[in-house]
Amino acid sequence: MKNALACLATALVVLVAGASAAQDRLTHTVFISLVEVKGGTTADKLAPPGVNPKEVSKGYEFKPPGAADKNNPQRWEVSSYMFSPGHVTVRQGDEIALTAFVVNGDVHEVWVTAPDGTDVVPKTKWSRGREYQVRFRADKAGAYKLVCSDHAPSMTATFLAMPR
Ligand SMILES: [Cu+2]
C-alpha cells in the first residue's frame, strides 16, 4: 500500500512537471522578408574584386565595369540575397510560425532542415510578391536552417533552439 502511494505520488509529480514543461513551450510568430541588398562604386575609386562574387555564393550578384551602367563604364555593382531577419533564437520544444514575404528575386526554392539534417519543411518554391506561411516545432536543440537553393550558401536563416 505504501509502495502504491509512493508510485501514485511519483506519477503525479511527473504529470505536473510534464504539464508545466508543455505550458513553457511558446509559439513564435516570425515575419521574414526575402530581400536583395545592393552596393556599387566606380573602378577609379576601388578596383573591382579579383574573384567574381558569384563564385563565392549563388546569392551574390556582380555587374562588372561596362555592364552595370552603360553611361558610366567605370561603374560596378554587387548585391546579396538574404532572409531578413537571418537569425532567430528560440527554446527547444518551441514552435515557429513563420510568415515569409518575397520582396526580391522572382523565385526561391526553399526548405527547412533540423539539426540532424532531416527536413522539417519540405522543398517548395516561393515567388515574388506572395506571402507564405509554414510551421515547425524545434524538438531538437541546435540550428534549424531555412535554406534557399537558388542563392546558397549565403541565403540561409538560422533558428537556434537553445536546450531546455
Ligand atoms: Cu533565394
Fraction of helical residues? 10-25%
Largest sheet: 5 strands, mixed
Query: In one word, what is the shape?
Result: elongated
By CATH, the topology of the largest domain is Immunoglobulin-like
List the ligand species: copper (II) ion
| Mean of residue pLDDT values | 91
Compute the number of structural domains: 2
Could you characterize what this model shows?
It is a single chain. The protein is α+β, with helices and mostly antiparallel strands. The chain has 2 domains: 24-34 and 82-162, Immunoglobulin-like (Sandwich); 37-80, no CATH class. 16% of the residues lie in helices and 49% in strands. It is built from 2 helices and 10 strands, in the order H-E-H-E-E-E-E-E-E-E-E-E. It has helices spanning 2-24, 53-56; strands at residues 27-42, 60-63, 75-84, 87-91, 95-102, 107-113, 119-127, 131-137, 142-148, 156-162. The strands form 2 sheets. A 5-stranded mixed beta sheet has the order 2-3-1-5-8. The radius of gyration is 23 Å and the shape is elongated. The two termini are 36 Å apart. Bound molecules: copper (II) ion. Copper (II) ion is lined by residues 81, 105, 108, 148, 150-151, 155.
Map the helices and strands.
Blueprint: H1 2-24, E1 27-42, H2 53-56, E2 60-63, E3 75-84, E4 87-91, E5 95-102, E6 107-113, E7 119-127, E8 131-137, E9 142-148, E10 156-162
Parallel strand pairs: 1-5, 4-10
Antiparallel strand pairs: 1-3, 2-3, 5-8, 6-7, 6-9, 9-10
The structure holds copper (II) ion.
Copper (II) ion binds next to loops.
